[in-house]
Amino acid sequence: MTQTSISSAAALAEMLASTGYLADEGLATIGYLALSMERPLLLEGEPGTGKTSLAEALAEALGLPLIRMQCYEGIDAAQALYDWDFTAQILHLRSVEAGGGAELSVAELEHSLYDKRFLLARPILKALQQSPAVLLIDEIDRADDEFEAFLLEVLSTYQVSIPEFGTVKADTAPIVVLTSNRTRDLHDALKRRCLYHWIDHPGLAREVEIVRTRLPEVPPLLAEQVVRVVQQIRASDDILKPPGVAETLDWARALHQLGRAELDLASAVASIGALCKYREDTERVSAALARMLG
User: Fold this and answer.
1) DSSP string, 104-130
2) Whole-angstrom Cα distance, residue 197 to residue 51?
């Protein structure tokens, strides 16, 4: 199935649901538009709201390879594009010498060193070569401005030029999903190239549905109790790191692993490390659990 064969937002939502990813109407609509218009999709939102998971679900639903590029401070174009296998090139030179390759001209020898077999494709080049594929550019807000500018060019043409090798252009534009936790504002030029959607934490009913879908082995009562507590924690003003959906799933899974069919205070306190990842949050939530469960 190709990205353009999806007929509607509802059809996309249904396909994503088959992988366990529940997209609301807004996300399904913007996702469908991004696919049908062949535009990159920029997702912003708090950590743990399902931005990265959407790319994973898209790849699974469409039966396409997922190629992930994790951004970080200092990443540059070379780390996203390609490198040359220096060791293999040296071995090639030695084998040419051993085989009487001295008859080759310097130009021919240099040309043979930049053969495709020595090219180490990094995520973006790999996506262009392997497309159709889903290219996840994760946490773009961690990268520098220069890298953003480089991405803008690649996402405009879906091709890159390698001086020693030539131009590589995708036969089919990859499906591109960019995520940002909004630690800084992205440039308007990049945003203009993309369709945009902000993903909020799900409401109570939706989060219960997510837990039930992803963890069908968790008893319904336990799933609902876990989500109710998580929603209360997120609403607190003094929490350093509000738990995301991923932490909700971890906590429900942990309690089920402990053999609990419903949430009790002792089990909640004992397993709180699956939900809170800061000492201060652990202490505050543990102290408030009795009230939350009451």
Assistant:
1) S-HHHHHHHHT-GGGEEE-HHHHHHHH
2) 10
Alpha carbons 179 and 140: distance in angstroms, whole number: 6
Non-local (6+) Cβ contacts of 127 within 8 A are 67, 133, 135, 170, 174, 176
Q: How far apart are CA 148 and CA 153, in angstroms?
A: 9
Helix, strand or coil, per DSSP, at residue 86: helix
CB 277 within 8 A of CB 239: no
What span, in angstroms and rounded, lies between the C-alpha atoms of 146 and 149?
Answer: 5
Average pLDDT over residues 275-292: 93
Q: Is the pLDDT of residue 101 over 70?
A: no
Residue 219, CA atoms < 13 Å, CB-side half-sphere: 12
Q: How many CB atoms lie within 10 A of CB 20?
A: 14
226 near 245, Cβ under 8 Å? no
pLDDT in tens, 174-185: 999 999 998 888
- Nearest partner of 194 among 66, 55, 39, judged by Cα: 39
Using pLDDT thresholds of 50, 70 and 90, give the confidence band for residue 105.
confident
Contact status, residue 133 vs residue 123, Cβ threshold 8 Å: no
Between 28-32, 82-86, 96-100, 287-291, the lowest mean confidence (pLDDT) is in 96-100
The two three-digit tokens of residue 203, written as one number? 């409401």
Each residue of 229-245: pLDDT tens digit?
999 999 998 899 999 99
